[in-house]
Amino acid sequence: MTPRKKALFILGSPNQTSQMFQIYQELKGDFDGYFTQFFPHSRLEKFAVHIGLLENTIIDGRFRKKSEDFVREHNLNYDYGGFKNMGKYDLVFMCTDAIYPEVARRSKSIFVQEGMVDPLDIWSKWVNKMGLPAYFTGTTSLNGSRNGPDVYCVASEGYKQHFSSLGTQADKIIVTGIPNFDHCQSFLNNPFPYRDYVLVCTTDMRETFRRENRPEFIRQSVKIAAGRPIIFKLHPNEIWDRAYKEIVALCPENTLVFQSGDTNHMIANCTELITQYSTVVYVGLALGKPVHSYFDVDELKRLQPIQNGGKSAAHIAELARQFADFKGSGPEFLRQYQARSVAST
């Protein structure tokens, strides 16, 4: 009897974990799935974890706890770092290419874009030019540009161009759409009890060592709302007490603040969306909401994830099945895979 194939899914934030789980659900009939939280690879990364420097990143702290809780609740196989089955995985799915660990090097690897990446500032450009690890930026600005995994599954043609311009081979990249952002119309039918408000979605910049003038952002949000009701949805990684006190000090008394709950449903019910650096802005754009972002909105429209009725996980899974049996490189596989796709249409 032929043994079942094995796939390792590297988890990160709740959004990354959700996307990987959806792909696994499509593949579990053919693969034994294993899961690991994003983990340190080099001695420097391990030392940073040891001294607590990465508590507010996907490599440690509350993100690791949430992912491991998710694995337990769903009775999934956990293989931290992929060490139990090192060299035995047929596929490794990566939620970021900031590192390219040994378990991925000894298998076929597939990068799945999570969503938006941070803006490319002067420091990020320098890190990219010097070929340093992407995590040296302290942001996600170089995520998707490291050219490590064999195949890159991305949200749109705009993102394919973006990642290839920063260093990933264009012939490694395929536009599949990304789970969680490919069927935004489905969010319109929801149980969230509030309607007709301005929604403000914040970002965990301070928790990830980036500068932010939060009071000024709150003031600008109040100005945009112009007397309309306001709801703040905090990033799950933010320090609640600090953020809540700042909001209530500067906003009208009827302002609501949430840190949990379905952000997509909140966006579906709002009249206008204000964001900083958050992928959820794409939900607002897909639903035709007026949006505000620290990014240029016209550029966001160019990068907008494709809407395919929620089929991205199934598309990625089918690609993965075929790639697992393919004898050759990622670019060679994608040329044949895309040629077959065109021929069948």
Compact overview of the structure:
This protein has 345 residues and is of the alpha/beta class.
List keywords for this structure.
single chain; 345 residues; alpha/beta; Rossmann fold; 7-stranded parallel beta sheet; 5-stranded parallel beta sheet; 13 helices; 12 strands; 14% strand
Write up this protein.
The protein has helices at residues 14-27, 43-50, 61-73, 102-105, 122-130, 157-165, 214-225, 240-250, 263-269, 281-286, 297-303, 312-324, 330-343; strands at 5-11, 31-37, 77-78, 91-94, 108-112, 151-154, 173-175, 198-201, 230-233, 256-258, 272-275, 291-292. The protein is globular. It has 345 residues and is of the alpha/beta class. The two termini are 36 Å apart. Helix 4 (102-105) links the parallel strand 4 (91-94) and strand 5 (108-112). The strands form 2 sheets. Strands 3-2-1-4-5-6-7 form a 7-stranded parallel β-sheet, with helices on both faces. A 5-stranded parallel β-sheet has the order 10-9-8-11-12, with helices on both faces. Helices cover 37% and strands 14% of the residues. Helix 1 crosses helix 12 (312-324). The chain has 2 domains: 5-181 and 307-343, Glycogen Phosphorylase B (Rossmann fold, 3-Layer(aba) Sandwich); 184-303, Glycogen Phosphorylase B (Rossmann fold). It is built from 13 helices and 12 strands. The model has no long low-confidence stretch (mean pLDDT 93).
